[in-house]
Design brief:
Layout: E1 2-11, E2 14-24, E3 29-33, H1 40-47, E4 55-60, E5 63-64, H2 70-75, E6 78-81, H3 93-100, H4 107-120, H5 122-126, H6 137-149, E7 155-159, H7 167-182, E8 186-190, H8 194-200, E9 203-208, E10 211-217, H9 218-223, H10 225-231
Parallel strand pairs: 3-8, 3-9, 6-7, 7-8
Antiparallel strand pairs: 1-2, 1-4, 4-5, 9-10
Helix pairs in contact: 3-6
InterPro entries: AAA+_ATPase, ABC_branched_ATPase_LivF/BraG, ABC_transporter-like_ATP-bd, ABC_transporter-like_CS, BCAA_Transport_ATP-bd_LivF, P-loop_NTPase
Keywords: Amino-acid transport, ATP-binding, Nucleotide-binding, Transport
GO biological process, one term: L-amino acid transport
Amino acid sequence: MLEVKDLCVAYGVIEALKGISFSVEEGEVVSLIGANGAGKSTTLRTISGLLRPKRGQIKYRGKEISKLPPYKVVELGLTQVPEGRRVFSRMTVMENLEMGAYTCRSRGEVKAGLERVFARFPRLAERKNQLAGTLSGGEQQMLAMGRALMSRPELLLLDEPSMGLAPLLVREVFAIIKEINQTGTTILLVEQNAHMALSISHRAYVLQTGEITISGPAGELMKNPEVKKAYLGD
């Protein structure tokens, strides 16, 4: 479904990604794990069209997308939930969700999208007229995910969904991610909480200073001594 080949991205003279290659198959949850500054968020931002690669290919369903603007990438069925949630704080919950529905072609599509989101996130339905900036961190994360789901993505890119959340909310958010995958959405997940990420993933890649150092089935990575020592606190 997604194929990244020899991807290099630089900020000025600093190479953030040094020729990484990986793939995501339809129906999978694939995680990119690694320390801060490893290049995880840069990878997602480049796939989304927010950054331009220095070299390399990004293919989505066989189509080269590395030179497309972000809105064209979304129209193809690939949507990102950004790091830090990035909700429109002075707009209501409903207005934020409607912003996510800009690819919808009819009012009926928007209505169906809202019904799906409110069924999955009942708390958003309760707070639909509330300003997004007044929501708790967990509720804002749900809103960011709901906003992304309004465009009915086939591939959802999630950037650090557990960031700044209490442990109980982290578990809730990851249960929702698993459920979104089980209802047919493929997921590429960037996450510092390696234990939670691996627990819901089919496969994973470890990024270190812009390079993939380890990859394999998530269950195997959980038992890998290097991964355990560096990322699982074992």
